[in-house]
Amino acid sequence: MLDTADVLLLARIQFAFTVSFHFIFPAFSIGLASYLAVLEGLWLRTGKALYLDLFRYWLKIFAVAFAMGVVSGIVMSYQFGTNWAVFSDRAGPVIGPLMAYEVLTAFFLEAGFLGVMLFGMERVGRKLHFAATCMVAGGTFVSAFWILSVNSWMQTPTGYVMGANGQFLPGESWIDVIFNPSFPYRLLHTVTAAYLTTAFAVGAVGAWHLLRDRTNLHARKMFSMAMWMAALVAPVQILLGDAHGLNTLEHQPVKVMAMEGHYRSHPEGAPLILFGIPNSKEKRVDYALEVPKLSSLILKHDLDAPLKGLDTVPDEDEPPVGVVFWAFRVMVGLGFAMLGIGLWSLVARSRGKLYEWAWLHRAALVMGPSGFVAVIAGWITTEVGRQPWTIYGLLRTADSASPLDAPAVAASLLAFIVVYFAVFSVGTWYILRLMNKPPHPHESGAGQAPIRTAGITPGPAQRGAAPGEE
To answer: Whole-angstrom Cα distance, residue 220 to residue 226?
Structure first.
């Protein structure tokens, strides 16, 4: 029989596994919904059928990704009551209403207009359909708003009072709970990451079809739009990431120590460790490649500014340094690679070679999954860096888990792994199959409208039958 620590580890692995699968799809659908709104808006404004073809091409992909995001999100949320019942009981009065607001606003908004968006092109006016598309795009943002507010409160809890039974209760103002210190930074950084994720996915599809046929006008347009997004948004994202890092240094300094690999304090300026192997046993980074004092310059804007290290933190309060250290470098490295692709595309565009440089297309194709990898690496940095706390500084992860036996958690984890890989592998394969087909003029829509399951079925005359067919 596994001991209590193993039960906690299994519960953490299960949540990490399900949230990683789930986060991939909203990161794509948030950006893709906005891209669809832009495409439909350009079609209405210019009248060019090319934009309508691209809208219909990506609408089918959005429908599958959105559905998988909803399904994985519903499954993931049940774990709050199964594996993390103590956390749900103690933090429920604060995070419960926030998650309910997400359902009452974002989910209802998306669900209310999604059918019109998918099947209403031929059934409602153009402006009404565009409004539905914008509502779905707005709903994805509102959903991110509430979920990130919950997560940010767990990182930087404010606006609460402690109840007599040990519960976290909302204080005088919900504004203090919602707009906690890290929330604005995390919201902007995460949503921008979603837009970049979509841009590089769209750019990779455009590059794939340009490598097969450089004369494909639809592939040219989607590749051009994606590269504009990469060139303009990637540098903004780097600046937002820097601001988010400074906010983290202020409110969660231990997380930054782990990200930087600073096992010891540096009273006269800390180096920036580019690469190395964290050695938590010996409290050092082996084979470190570092730039002297650069970390102090980045974090404090002063080469000689002192920075505290993990030697000032009790061992039981340290996060797993190796995971945080490398996840952070994967995220940052991919961010600068995205910036490089964006700058490369500007050079190609300035020389009139955006659709001719095959090596740019190959690089964009390779970078297609980069956004998904970067958002997962960023999420790992955020969540593992918060450990050993569920609510930072107030409630430990070890004190948040349900009193379950290890076999129960292991069985559900195994079931999740089997079902997720079976279901979502098929869904991902289908999305890739849709992407493999080149966009073309007169692109078909999302498919047939839903079959009626209730109500009055139209008679033959209403379906367009010829007189006498009845």
So the answer is: 10
